[in-house]
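ok so I'm stuck.
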Amino acid sequence: MAYFTLAIQVLKIPDEFSGNKIKKLDGFSSKINGKRITEIPAILIGQLGKNDLYSSKITGDEIMQFCFSKILEGQERLGGRIIMLECKNIEYLKNFYRKYGFDLIDKDYDNDELLQFIKILTEEDLI
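replied:
not stuck anymore, here's the structure
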């Protein structure tokens, strides 16, 4: 009826990000061994969708809740605190992901480039 894919991905930090913003993503610092952090490991939601034949049988909210439950199962074993995803620049999709606490990465996007969203897991997410 529906599907999603999860993978480990490297979040490349845009050059425009301040040290404070990098520290917020990393959770500890904006530098390692005196050098600016440029990449952070993340959990990627690679795809999320449903089969058109079953569109009335399952909602996007149900798919996202199941996806989050699997992310949290993995997080208990492997750690990590950032979830990322990419989507087309479609208002419905952007609003859907924002509803779940995802924020658009503020950078310059090419016209046909997918938008990148991230969510930093909090203690409330993990309980």
